[in-house]
Amino acid sequence: MTTYFKMIGQINSRADYDKILRKALDKPGQEPFHYFDAYPFDKKEAPLVLVGDVAKSLIGDLKKAAPKAAYAMGVCTVKDNEIVFERETGKLQPRLVSAALKLSGIKSVVKFNGEEDEAETENEQEDAPSVEPPKPNGPAAKTVPVENKAPQQNVPKPPVTAPSGQVSPLAKDFQEKLKKLRPAFDDALKKAKAQTKGTWADDLDSNFAQMVQEAKAGQFDKALATLARLARMVKSEEAARAEVKHQSMKEDEVYAQATSDRMDKHYAKDEVKQIRKGSKDKGFGLTEDGNVSYALPVKPAEWKSKVVGGLDQVMGLLKEEQVDIFELGNLTGDISDMINRVAAHADESDGQFPERAKAIYAMQELLSAYQEEFGKISATLSSNKSPAELADACSELRKQIQTLLGNARKAMPDKKAIEDFTMLASKRAQEREAALRKRGVSMKELEKEVDKLRVQLKEFGPEPEDERQELERELDEKIETLTIGTDLLRRDISDHSSGTTEKQEMEQFQKGERQPDNVMLISRRIDLAKSLIEKRQFDQARQAISDLASELINKGFAEEDAKEQEAYQALQFLESELMIAAQAKAGSPSKAARLAKRVKNQAEKFAPLLA
């Protein structure tokens, strides 16, 4: 499993969330997923889907942020431009999940196992042939074919609809408003066609053509709506781009239902004004109804000041003996917001800036590597337990589980119960063999990683010294983990082959132990984690607990029994504490500074592309 979402700050910003989700669903394979039917992104509620290994603490934070949201979890499989969701717990709404992925820019085919009714209905709708006229290529706002782009065509006089033979009030209103808009439209179209790049002219043309067709058909309510959209589009290229984005999003039925009301229906005038100002301060505009935000362009001077200059400050902070985490976090957030804003602008510009788009996406990858390192450094604020305290926590956890699952006060098993337990011995043996084989594969993979690091270190020169030291430390830790893991695996294989494990399970069962196989498994793996903690190998200890949790779930553990669920939650809590300790230990200000420098070098090269 891969961890993509680590902290709630990655989710609160819609742009950050979309980027991480796209990355998570770009790689073929199977990962767990978590789903909330409504989450407050930038004060706007929308469905939330998380993919990958997610810490329990983050799920808790999200439930606090969206206490009324329906929650579900399961696994999703990515293969051949197809994403398949399979729910395990909770309530899943396929159409909302599909809408969430579309809003994040994911174009893969989405399917759902076990959600037949709603999923089949959705697929039938997607596969049904369209009975509407074909739409032109380009942004979704272009909703009618453009047979003649010239806006100079005369709008025909509307048909007489009133019994008296007079023009209808809607038709008259349309004619008057069109007459007022026409000069501004012609000026905007002339300006748009003078540009060698961009789609502003096409957007104006296609919407004008749509308006004409609606007027010819006598649909003046629709023609007036299109006319109002044109009135906003003629103001600037940015305004036109916003309308195109808004129109494409409105075509999604689920999104349209969720955002049918205007902002001013829920907020007072002063509040609306403040919301729009706050959005603009962050570099985003809002469409007229306030339901869709769009990225405003970034000027070269603004880029140099906030990104290039900000990265200079970041590198300065990382060189200090005591790193100011809060100041570093504020700078990192501002830089990330600016880079994501430029990326959003590139996404919304319909291929107008291909070089800029390619360069900004590459920079986002570099920024992601830096942010990961920053996350490790910031984990020191949350890491408040020493290795000794974590080791004690392991011992306490083992006692707790033995108390929860070991029911010694229960009456001793009778002859029939012992016979039944004996009959299941072969099944337990098969499960142990499968688990031992899986652990053997993990040790082989770890051995390959050790060999790869040895070769890398051999080819690595003496400089820079800090990077070499990081490689040496990583190699030493992996060798120690390999040694401990291999020794424990050999012991478990020997006990299994000799029948010692089976004998111990029977002894425990005869004493009244409810689940001797699980109790023994948990006890041994916690001992392994404790040994690794004592050697300050927190990440390896976390992996041991994570593997144990997965193995227990595969055996049907904690499906219904309340005591098993309590034990499983205790394991997850220990895993989250070990994750924080591992991040705090791995955090390297010097490595973060190197990564920040790479981002800065690319940011300096990127500035001319904004001109």
Task: Please give a structural write-up.
- With 611 residues, the protein is of the alpha+beta class.
- 64% of the residues lie in helices and 8% in strands.
- It contains 23 helices and 7 strands.
- The strands form 2 sheets. Strands 2-1-3-4-5 form a 5-stranded mixed β-sheet, with helices on both faces. The protein has a two-stranded antiparallel ribbon with strand order 6-7.
- It is globular.
- It starts with 8 loop residues before the first helix and ends in a 5-residue tail after the last helix.
- Mean pLDDT is 80; it is low at 116-164.
Note the main attributes of this structure:
611 residues, alpha+beta, five-stranded mixed beta sheet, 7 strands, globular
Report the average pLDDT across residues: 80
Total beta-strand segments:
7
Portion of residues within helices: 55-70%
Question: By helix and strand content, what is the structural category?
Answer: alpha+beta
Low-confidence stretches: 116-164
**Order of strands, widest sheet:** 2-1-3-4-5
**Gyration radius, to the nearest Å?**
30 Å
Helix-strand pattern: HHEEHEEHEHHHHHHHEEHHHHHHHHHHHH
- The proportion of strand residues reads 5-15%
The main pleated sheet reads as:
5 strands, mixed
- The tally of helices reads 23
CA-CA gap between termini: 42 Å
From the spread of the alpha carbons, the general shape counts as globular
